[in-house]
Amino acid sequence: AKRVKVILFPGLLFEEMGFTYLGPIDGHDVCKLIEVLNDVRSLKGPVLLHVVTKKGRGYEKAEADPIKYHGVTRFNPETGETLKGPSAPPTYTKVFSQTLCQLAKEDEKIVAITAAMPEGTGLDAFRDKFAHRYFDVGLGEQHAVTFAAGLARGGFKPVVAIYSTFLQRAYDQIIHDVCLQNLHVV
């Protein structure tokens, strides 16, 4: 019966852990959000404010293709087309992606792991060419590193691509599961 309550009332789980749960709140209703944030200041103890937003909200093209518009450069808002600037050298991500795909053609032991960022890290090209050797562990950087360690122990050559901002979540795993074990994880 308790499990059913948690499913039907998502805040109940947090309330049982001692949190005040508020939400879900429409994150696009700025006036309501400010009102709730002002109210939250007076509460004692930990508070979990559940805010729901839609990526790209208000721009139809971004709502339809949130990945394309996640980290967009200059573009024409009427057409959605990227505006070309002066010619630039290839990005680090592009070079990484192309090089990894080339190496993977030559070595079937190379596998790639991402934590929900295939496009941003350049692993989308690897995924498209080597789907059976590509792993997206979702928002689990710690798991990505430990998973890579297990694959390395099994004879694979895992490449883990995670933005440095999020890699801080996996420092313990890097040290304990990879470095101290002297495993080949890139």
Order of helices and strands: HHEHEHHEHHEHEHH
Poorly predicted residue ranges: none
Give average pLDDT, whole number: 91
> Radius of gyration, Cα only, in angstroms?
21 Å
Largest sheet: spatial strand order? 4-3-5
N→C terminal distance: 46 Å
Number of strands: 5
The helix content, as a percent range, equals 40-55%
Number of helices, counting only DSSP H or I runs of 4 residues or more: 10
Roughly what fraction of the amino acids lie in strands? 5-15%
- Coarse structural class: alpha/beta
Shape: flat
Largest sheet: 3 strands, parallel
In words, what does this structure look like?
There is one protein chain. This protein is an alpha/beta fold and 186 residues long. The chain has ten helices and five strands, in the order ααβαβααβααβαβαα. The strands form two sheets. The chain has a three-stranded parallel sheet with strand order 4-3-5, with helices on both faces. A two-stranded parallel ribbon has the order 1-2. Strand 1 (20-26), helix 3 (30-40) and strand 2 (47-52) form a beta-alpha-beta unit. Helix 5 packs parallel to helix 7 and helix 8 runs parallel beside helix 10 (171-179). The longest helix has 15 residues, at 92-106. It starts with a helix and ends in a 7-residue tail after the last helix. The mean pLDDT is 91.
